[in-house]
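Retro notes (design track)

What went well: tokenization of the new backbones is finally stable.
What didn't: we kept losing track of which sequence belonged to which structure.
Fix going forward: every design gets posted as structure first, then sequence, in one message. First example under the new rule, 142 residues:
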């Protein structure tokens, strides 16, 4: 049985990318927000939300205070309170077309980790494939 899929964009993903003090097992390049702040983010299809580093949220002028509605995020740093914001996130293509998604991002003053590109409100909105033979990341918006 053969399966085929088509994608509009291709980029390189970075295995074992180091963003001190963190090691990102699968990292991809993206731009966040209207101004397109460049980031390398942890590609985490098991992560609940995209999570922005505090410095990026501040640069975008986002409110860092918890909204009291959003459930706390369970992370390797423990429970973190915050808020959810919808932001443009662009996956950058080396070949083909980049993909822009309205991503739902968790924002918290207490986040000490790297950019995370998570499942809910982001990866569930695109078609993607990873090819570890050449570290290629294939994607297209749904």
């Amino acid at each position: 049985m053969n399966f085929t899929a088509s994608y509009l964009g291709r980029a390189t993903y970075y295995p074992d990318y180091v963003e001190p003090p963190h090691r990102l097992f699968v990292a991809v390049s993206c731009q966040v927000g209207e101004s397109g702040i460049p980031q390398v983010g942890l590609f985490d299809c098991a992560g609940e939300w995209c999570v922005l580093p505090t410095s990026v949220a501040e640069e975008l002028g986002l409110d860092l205070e918890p909204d009291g509605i959003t459930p706390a995020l369970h992370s390797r740093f423990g429970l973190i309170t915050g808020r959810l914001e919808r932001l443009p996130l662009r996956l950058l293509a080396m070949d083909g077309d980049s993909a822009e998604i309205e991503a739902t991002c968790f924002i918290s003053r207490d986040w000490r980790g790297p950019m995370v590109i998570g499942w809910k409100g982001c990866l569930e909105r695109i078609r993607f494939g990873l090819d570890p033979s050449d570290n290629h990341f294939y994607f297209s918006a749904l």
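Added context from the reviewer: Residues 10-141 form a domain with the Cathepsin D, subunit A; domain 1 fold (CATH 2.40.70.10).
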